[in-house]
Amino acid sequence: MDYPLWIPGIGAGVLIGLVAITHVLVSHFAVGGGIVMAVAETLAVKRQDQALRNLAKRTSLILILVSTVFGAISGVGIWVTIGLLHPVATSALIHSYVWGWATEWVFFILEVATALAYYATWDKVRPRTHLLLIWLYAFAAFMSLVIIQGIISFMLTPGNWLQTKAFADGFFNPTYVPGLVLRTGICVFLAGAYMAFAALREQDLAARARLVRFLAGIQVVGILIAYGGYRWWEAALPESIRALFLGASPKLPALASTRHFLLWMLLAYLVFVLFALLAPKAQRWPITAVALVLAFAFFGGYERLREGARKAFIIRDYMFANGVLISEIGKLNQEGILSKAKWLMVGQPDNPVAKGRAVFRAQCAMCHTENGYLGIRKLISGADAETLDMILTTMRDEGEKYTSNQYRQNGHVATEKLDYPFMPPFVGTEEEKEALKAYLVTLTGTKVAEVSHGN
To answer: GO terms for biological process (predicted)?
Structure first.
């Protein structure tokens, strides 16, 4: 809100999700591909296995294109997207972890350099030199994951950082190691699933079966690591987050369904991989493609669950999804939300509906569009002014509960005790609340005159 925002018609969250999920899929392959290719070529040299060496060689071009080209472009795309859609959160992440980002960029440069050298030196340098290049690449790529995981997990479980604001407390947060184990498993099985297509190009049937079995074994290892990491990650979450998607009555049933979905997808993926392990000669392109889709489904389901579990925050217990800090709720209730987003009223008429539209853009538009994704018009259809007033009043009262110690457990806000645990509270003056109500009434289909009803 401190900066002018660009909110697309499909919604900010959807656009960020589309860019991010594309990037994380290829970036996790880039990490896992380095590890699996390093293992494959090491075994090939040790066993004098030309088919296994050819597998690594066939995959290396894809690794280069994914890591140094598409991965780099989509990574920049994430920065551009979040900078436009959520500049205040982007600023917070940069200022809190500037040295973390700088270190990750150093590893990325090493990753790009070694990937290019690895591909360019096939059959031109000694085997040991070539192995050194791929192991250096695998190390650099994995270290990028090690650093990025600390920042990603911080946004969901900031831990003691909330009190100390220390780099180490935020980076080594409660879900850092569990999430790193989970993502390592995902990297490994994604690489195995990708490389299975290259294995099917082997003309020698006996060698093809051997490669399929080898990659199936790699995928089984990755699946087991990922499953163990997921269970550990889930157990490390604060109870207030777990309550959103676990238990007999989860606060967000859609997230509970996402959890069931991702676990079933992982089980189905394991079944397909075990089939490849036990019957490698029967492996065909369609079966391999289905296995890859199931791997994507598990990973996508986890990312959806992780992002959804952060509601109503962008940084848990610190910054709401709309950029409002918990620490500034009291001030904004006195001075008004538009004192923080003055740009929204520039050139606008001075009337309640226009002011209400500005308040909506400041507080609600990060998640809700008017008619598209999570469209507010549909959500409040048929509601009258009295109902809207009751909802907004409740949401404003919940802001005071965030700032008090009434709903805090072990430093975390016990959002499961709130009426709207997955939405930021309404923050602003009474005049702004009335203005927002006036604007919302124009979207409900009820008469604008009803705005004054019950006041």
So the answer is: aerobic electron transport chain
SS3 state at 313: strand
pLDDT, tens digit (0-9, with 9 covering 90-100), for 287-328: 999 999 999 999 999 999 999 898 889 999 899 988 899 999
Tell me what pLDDT residue 20 has. Answer: 84
Do 442 and 448 meet the contact criterion of CB atoms below 8 Å apart?
Answer: yes
133 & 273 share domain:
yes
In a domain, residue 109? The reply is yes
- Residue 383 contacts residue 450 (beta carbons within 8 Å): no
Domain extent at residue 393 = 326-452
Question: Half-sphere exposure of residue 108, counting CA atoms within 13 Å on the CB side?
Answer: 18
- CA distances (Å), origin 129, targets 126, 133, 208, 323, 324: 5, 7, 27, 50, 53
Which regions of the chain are under pLDDT 50? 448-455
Residue type, 438: A
- E strand map for 18-162: none
Quickly count helices (H) and strands (E) in the chain: 18, 4
CATH number at residue 287: 1.20.1630
> Residues 6 or more apart from 205 whose CB is under 8 A from it?
281
pLDDT value, residue 455: 37
DSSP for 382-414 reads: T--HHHHHHHHHHHHHHHHHHHSSTTEETTEE-
The count of other CB atoms within 10 Å of the CB of residue 434 is: 21
How many independent structural domains does the chain possess?
2
